[in-house]
Every structure is written in structure tokens, then in C-alpha cells.
Amino acid sequence: MKYQHDEAICMQCIEDEFLRELVFEKNKNQTCIECGKNNYSISIKELAEYIDTFIREHFRHGTYERRFNIEDDGYWDEQGGEDLISIISIICGQDFKCVDDIAQILIEQDVYDVRDGEDPFYGLDIGYEEKEIYLDDIHNSWQQIENEIKTKRRFFSIRAQEFFEWLFDDIEHLHIYDHQSDPAERRNSVIYELPVDTLLFRARRADTLEICKQYIDSAVKNLFPPPAKYAKEGRMNAKGVSIFYAATEKETCIAEMRTSIGSFVVLGQFKTVEPIRILDFSYFEKAFWKNNLLSYFQDDFEEQVKRRKFLKEIHRLISKPIISGYEDGYLMTQALAEYIAYVYPKNIDGLLFKSTQHDKGSNIVIFSKKNNSWRNNQEGFSIFPVELVGNSLEIHKIVGIAYDAKKINFSNSDNNFYIERDYNEDY
Questions:
Q1: Position 324 pLDDT exceeds 70
Q2: Is 357 strand, coil or helix?
Q3: Mean pLDDT taken over the chain
Q4: 62 touches 77 (CB < 8 A)
Q5: How far apart are CA 36 and CA 26, in angstroms?
């Protein structure tokens, strides 16, 4: 050991802010063994006892996996996970000075009964894995709110608002690391600005070339979203709420039409005429909180882990296809979009999410909330900050459709129908 158990380390030499707060609350001045200053401190023994609680709460022994040697047909069982030294560094910070001493104290004070077949929890040769935190309660809340909106409180669901406030709190600090972008711009926020002249694509289905001609003759009227009184409900809007749906690629736009073979699609290019702030749901799956790491010592650690995990999962819930005739499945996404557009305190003009019809494409929705500042389009039919690009109209005939199917295993016995569920999908 490097230090004696009763020697102390001060709050200034502890990286984790919640652990520092614990030391401060103890209000005990001692000379720090690291920096030599007299400051609020905690003995290494007390610190080890405190850390012990959190390691046992959040970590378990790593599982064993069988490894094989091809050359001599031999095998051995190898334990997964990180060693104890690494685990202490993870929860206390990489610059923590007393890692080895804490580990030794934990091993020495480990209580177990060999006679009862118990194994030690601590050891330098033991691997540790983080315990899984499940989202069952979050999924239940989502479903309960959806049912409330569907059957009870369609327009004033306080429960829905509170859930969205909790879910989207501080998402402006959520970033991704994009390896393909310029090194100086690799940290991108999930909220970013689409510049002026960004191209977007919208289309209309047509059964005949005559109908195509009608759409082209009045292209702005037919390709822009309809006025509010004609607006049908969609994934992100209730009936009577006009919203601009588009795709970021031509191929995605055509695929999203879900047109039958032999039919036609009239497609137009639109360009943004003002900068648009977008919340990109596709970023959630690979995002991290910039300069806002969670601490194992904070009271709401598990709750915040669940929130961050659910944000990574919500993109699937947002983009999942809705079968015709079951449009009430849009209720939660409509409520979510309304919250982001009108209630969320940071200004967001639209949403972007992956297309389920074209795996390499994305869809975008732009809200009509800025009708006081966004100008009308060429013919006054819209309040969205976009305009139709001249001479951009195209007619496409659908000549083929590709389907990708996944087999679902089931059992059906004694009137008990059971689906083998993949919890990454909805059935």
C-alpha cells in the first residue's frame, strides 16, 4: 500500500463532483496526503467503505465464456469485464490518486463465508461487468400516456407534458462524433441548423399521366402542404394542422409514397429560404453528453441512465411504420411533435428521422409555428420557409417494388398464441 488507512485525501484532489460534495458535507479538515494542503478531506478507509456501496450496487462479477485453442483442441473459461483497479478508476475518475489503496482495502474488508460456499466479491484477478438497467418502467409510462391520450385526455395531458420535459431535458448538450466530417467539426449537436438553399423533396401519387399534368400545371398548390382546413392527420400532426413533410433524398421521397406498380409519382425539389433549426432523432442512437458525464454517486444515476438509453431507443418509436386503418398509433408522435414545436423551451423548427421505406434515407418535418415571420410561398399557399425550385418537377413511373421480410417464430397451443418477441421491434 502507498498510504495508511487513516490518511486523508481532500476534495480538491477528487475528480467526481458528487464525490467531492460528499467530502464537503463531512466538514472535516485534514491535511491531504496528495497535495499537502489542509482542506475538507476524507480518510482513505472511509472513502473505500463509501465506494464499496456503489460498486456492489452497479457492478457484478463478469460472466465466463469458453475459449478454444484450435491447434491442440484445448479450451478454457475466460471471465469477461474489467479488473477492480479499472472499475475504481471508472467510477472515481481516471486521475484518482488512491486507486490501488482503495482496492486493497476493499479486498481486506470483504466479508464472505467459505463454509456456505460463498466466494469473495473483491479480488485483483476478478472481472467486473456493469449491471444491466432495464427500461420496462419507461416503456410502461410511454404506453400508459399513449392510452391516456387515446381514451381520456386528448388535448391537455399533463402527464404527457411532464414525461416529455423529463425526456428532452438538456438535449442541446447531446452530441455525436462524426468520423467523416472535418476534424474541426466532428462534434455535432443533435440540434443543428439547416442552411439556406438546402434541398428537400416532396411528391404526389398519380394513377394516370393526365393527373400528372394537372399536378404540374398547378405545382405549388399541389406539392405544398394543404391549408389547415384540408390537412389530414399524419405521423407528426393532428387533423387540421398543416405541416411540411419531405425527404432529404429523391429516392427516399419516391419510396415513402408507397405507390403501386404502374402508377406515377410527380416529384419536386424544394429549397429552404431561411435557416431551420432541426432536432435530428437519428443522432440519438450514437450520441453522448458533451461535458456532462453521469456520476455513479449522484442520487438519480439510474433514472438518468434510463432516460439516456430511452432517447437512443425513441428514434425507432418515432419512425416505425403505421398500418393503414390504425392511425391512432400516431397519437404519441403527434403529441411529441407538438411538445417540441410549441412547449420545448429551446427553439426547434423541425424534426429529422430515418425512413423505414428507404434504409439509406431520412424524412424531415417542418412546423408551421412561425407564421408571423416566415413568408408565404410563391402563390401564398404555405407559411413554411421553403420554396419550389423552378424547373425541378419530375415524373416517375413505378416499375418495381422490393420487400424485405423477417420470419417471426410463434407457438399456438391450447388457445394460447405466443409470439417470440424481439424487443427492438413492435408487433
A1: no
A2: coil
A3: 85
A4: no
A5: 19
